[in-house]
């Protein structure tokens, strides 16, 4: 039960930020910045389930993590299921973009591709504005748990999702960007 509290708090935060986004107080740029941070916070909350010992005293940590993994309670899967339904109306589009996304819903558009390149090059925030949208991107860093499915050896089989190959990421490496696109 305690494990689900972070995701519940994150879900509540999602609705609060979206409510803010609909007010006249926030510009599209401010809203995009807040929403990209929301993606990072959600990913971090879920990732803690994998990097901290579980609180179910009778269940070994390895088995606990295996259960989470087999049920797709993985950072990218949980965050994707939380954010992608928000993208349906096109007013706000949230993604976790990487060079070669496993999930097609995270495939970057032309502006997100530019932002991803900048984030990967600098490791810093990036933003762009077009006549139609405000974009904001924050770096996503690989953490310890990512290494199991995305680490070395590059090209090795992912142990949880065998149809995918490991990307060869290193812990602490900036591997992508949490992007937010907000319609003007």
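-> sequence recovered:
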């Amino acid at each position: 039960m305690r494990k689900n509290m972070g995701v519940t708090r994150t879900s509540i935060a999602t609705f609060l930020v979206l409510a803010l986004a609909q007010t006249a107080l926030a510009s599209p740029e401010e809203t995009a910045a807040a929403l990209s941070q929301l993606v990072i916070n959600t990913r971090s909350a879920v990732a803690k389930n994998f990097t901290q010992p579980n609180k179910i005293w009778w269940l070994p940590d390895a088995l606990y993590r295996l259960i989470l993994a087999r049920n797709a309670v993985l950072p990218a899967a949980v965050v994707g299921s939380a954010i992608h339904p928000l993208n349906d109306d096109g007013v706000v589009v949230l993604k976790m973009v990487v060079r070669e996304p496993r999930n097609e819903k995270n495939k970057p558009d032309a502006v997100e591709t530019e932002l991803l390149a900048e984030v990967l090059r600098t490791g810093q925030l990036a933003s762009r504005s077009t006549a139609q949208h405000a974009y904001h991107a924050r770096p996503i860093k690989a953490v310890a748990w990512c290494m199991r499915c995305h680490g070395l050896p590059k090209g090795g089989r992912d142990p949880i999702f065998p149809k995918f190959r490991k990307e060869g990421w290193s812990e602490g490496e900036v591997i992508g960007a949490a992007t937010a696109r907000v319609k003007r």
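Residues 136 and 180 are 5 Å apart (CA to CA).
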